[in-house]
Design brief:
Layout lengths: L1 E9 L3 H19 L2 E6 L4 H7 L5 H8 L3 E6 L14 H11 L4 E7 L17 E7 L9 E5 L5 E5 L5 H16 L4 E6 L5 H15 L8 E6 H10 L6 E4 L1 H12 L11 E3 L5 E3 L18 H13 L4 H16 L2 E2 L11 E2 L2 H11 L1
Parallel strand pairs: 1-2, 1-3, 3-12, 5-10, 8-9, 8-10, 13-14
Antiparallel strand pairs: 4-5, 4-11, 6-7, 11-12
The structure holds 3-isopropylmalic acid (IPM) and magnesium ion.
The site of magnesium ion has 2 residues, from helix 8.
């Protein structure tokens, strides 16, 4: 198969981890007789520097004309001074919006080899997916910073959801749950927020409206409790479905259960358009360009691309198994290295080499 992949390296370690993703994907292509055609496009800080905007038109066009998008990371202190619309993050939110990427899947799985990296005593069987609504809520609602009638500086953001936005993300979660253990926890703040009360109502309507969902066990959890339960007993979760901001926060929290944020991949999917695959971590400017980054979240995101956008299940499994073996053999980037346990500290490139060697 021939597939067109738009690659957004972005800023910081985004560049080096996407290089590793391409090398690993090329190995897969070689092994299975596929052809992956990459087009590099600019987004984030690098696009601000070169073109004066975090999300050039050209980038949107190339992404739309591709079969999938791979994204490293964007952002860095250099660009933290600009107004909201001229920050690297605006590029990320812009591409999510432009491609209609409403469903963000963040699998949180603790590899056996990293069990000791998990900060929890009670760390067995951590294997969940956070389904985060990605283009609604406070991230995309009306916002303003202004001076009020008493001269105070004021600002607000609006967390708005329409029923159909909740319906479509709920369906993604239920469909996913049917392929897993069938346990869905819908996270909201329905004891306080109107948008959460609507969320809860719609999620339950979707659930009741489909015979196929009968075998799913749906429960609701308030977001503060969910934050606590994630560290108290993470093994209770299978699929978590939640709105944009709650999903952002809970997924960072959940990531440390896997040893490092550097292990967490993600897939952002649209109804009828190209998907985007990116690690959940950021651009880590402090270690950028030093061959210290952990490319595993990026590699696992590439595996998600193969599975979800290209229907290449075996190829995806190959990458996931290779990562598992490399970890079992003791290869560790700095974020998951503790020393004194026979493991071997490697750089980003060497980690890529090790995965390729397994393939
Ligand atoms: C994420 C990131 C982004 C988000 C930032 C970089 C805008 O934290 O993908 O989780 O908040 O969505
Ligand atoms: Mg985040």
């Amino acid at each position: 198969m021939t597939k067109k992949i738009a690659v957004i390296g972005g800023d910081g370690i985004g560049v080096e981890i996407t290089v590793e993703a391409r090398r690993v994907l090329n190995k897969i292509a070689e092994k299975y007789g596929h052809e992956f055609k990459y087009t590099n496009v600019l987004m984030g800080g690098v696009a601000i520097d070169e073109l004066g905007t975090p999300l050039p038109e050209e980038t949107i066009n190339v992404c739309k004309a591709s079969d999938a998008v791979l994204l490293g990371a964007v952002g860095g202190p250099k660009w933290d001074v600009g107004p909201g619309h001229l920050r690297p993050e605006a590029g990320l939110l812009g591409i999510r919006g432009a491609l209609g990427l409403f469903a963000n899947l963040r699998p949180v799985k603790l590899f056996d080899a990293l069990a000791d990296e998990c900060l929890l005593k009670n760390s067995k069987k951590i294997d969940m997916v956070i389904v985060r609504e990605l283009i609604g809520g406070a991230y995309f609602g009306k916002r303003e910073t202004y001076i009020d009638e008493n001269g105070a500086k004021a600002a607000y953001d609006t967390m708005l959801y329409r029923d159909w936005e909740i319906e479509r993300i709920a369906k993604v979660a239920f469909k996913l749950a049917l392929k897993r253990t069938g346990n869905v926890v819908s996270v909201d703040k329905a004891n306080v927020l109107d948008s959460s009360r609507l969320w809860r109502e719609v999620v339950h309507n979707v659930y009741a409206g489909n015979e196929d969902y009968k075998r799913i066990n749906l429960s609701d959890m308030l977001v503060d409790n969910a934050a606590m339960q994630l560290v108290r007993e993470p093994g209770q979760f299978d699929v978590i479905v939640t709105e944009n901001l709650f999903g952002d926060i809970l997924s960072d929290e959940a990531s440390v259960l896997t040893g490092s944020l550097g292990m967490l991949p993600s897939a952002s999917l649209a109804e009828n358009s190209v998907g985007l695959f990116e690690p959940c971590h950021g651009s880590a400017p402090d270690i950028a360009g030093q061959n210290k980054a952990n490319p595993i979240a990026m590699l696992l995101s590439s595996a998600m691309m193969l599975r979800l956008s290209f229907d290449m299940e075996q190829e995806a499994l190959d990458i996931e198994n290779a990562v598992e073996k490399v970890l079992a053999k003791g290869f560790r980037t700095g974020d998951i290295y503790r020393g004194n346990d026979g493991t071997k500290l490697v750089g980003c490139t060497e980690m890529g080499d090790a995965v390729i060697a397994e393939l």
